[in-house]
Amino acid sequence: MAGSLQLKPFLIAPSILSADPLAVGASVDVLKGDFDWLHVDVMDGHFVPNLSYGPAVAKALRRRYPDAVIDVHLMVEPGEDFLDMFLESRPDCLTVHQEACRHLHRALSKIRAAGVRSGVALNPATPVELIKPVLNIADVVLLMSVDPGFGGQSFIPEVTEKAVTLCQLREARGLKFLIEMDGGINAANMAQVRRCGVDVAVMGSAVFGTPDPAATVAKMRLLVDGE
Ligand SMILES: O=C(CO)[C@H](O)[C@H](O)COP(=O)(O)O
C-alpha cells in the first residue's frame, strides 16, 4: 500500500501513560532523547473511564524538556473548556476529540490562533467523514486504534482503513495535516501502521513496558526503515 500513498517521515511518540507514574521524568530520561514527540494523555473520568494527568504535569514536562515536541491529547468533555489551561503549558500540539467538542471548528481555530498545532482525534467507531469540514484547519488527525481510556489494549486493525482514506483526502485536497495513530501499536503491527499512511505512531506499553525502552524505540525505527 505504501507505493500508492505519499508517505512523510515517520515519527515515534512514546506515551507517558505507560511510564512509571511515580517517576515520569526518569522514565522519559531513559529514552535518552530518542523520540520524535512526547505524547501526554489527559483523561477526565467522564469522556473516558479513567483519570490521568492534568496541566501541572504538562507544564512540568515543558520545563524539563524545553526542546521536546510535546503532544497533548485531551480525552476530556467538553474539550473546549480545557483549552486555556493546556495552552498555558505551551505544548507543540493540542488535540481535542471530535466526539467531545460541540464547537470543533472553534476549538481548532483557537488552538491554532495560540500558535500551537491543532489536533482532532477520532474514536475507533467515528468515521472520517465527520471531520471533513475541519481538515483544512487541522495540523494533526489522531486516529484512536483502541477505545480511549487505557494503555495496553489490543490494536483494532479496521482503523487502518481510516488512515488510508485520510491519506487520500489529504492528497486530493492538497492539505498538510499529519496522521497520528494511538493504541495497541507494537513491533508486530508497526509495519502495517506505516503502510496505511500513518505519520506518527503513539506507543505506550510497547515502549515503557519493555526492559530497555531506548532499544525498543531503536528497533521500531529499524522495522519501519526496513519496509
Ligand atoms: O490514549 C491512550 C489510551 O487512551 C494511550 O496513548 C494509548 O493507549 C497508548 O498506550 P498503548 O500503546 O499501551 O496502547
UniProtKB/TrEMBL annotation:
PROSITE patterns reported for this sequence: RIBUL_P_3_EPIMER_1
Active site as annotated: D41, D182
Any one GO biological process: pentose-phosphate shunt
Top EC class of this enzyme: isomerase
Organism this protein belongs to: Pyramidobacter porci
One GO term describing the cellular component: cytoplasm
GO molecular function: D-ribulose-phosphate 3-epimerase activity; metal ion binding
Membrane-spanning parts: none
Cofactor note: Binds 1 divalent metal cation per subunit.
Similarity comment: family membership: Belongs to the ribulose-phosphate 3-epimerase family.
Binding residues annotated for a divalent metal cation, in chain numbering: H39, D41, H73, D182
Keywords (A to Z) from UniProt: Carbohydrate metabolism, Cobalt, Isomerase, Manganese, Metal-binding, Zinc
Segments forming a coiled coil: none
Known cofactor(s): Fe(2+); Mn(2+); Co(2+); Zn(2+)
InterPro entries: Aldolase_TIM, Ribul_P_3_epim, Ribul_P_3_epim-like, RibuloseP-bd_barrel
Top-level taxon: Bacteria
Its EC number(s): 5.1.3.1
One Pfam family linked to the record: Ribul_P_3_epim
Pathway it works in: Carbohydrate degradation
Protein name in UniProt: Ribulose-phosphate 3-epimerase
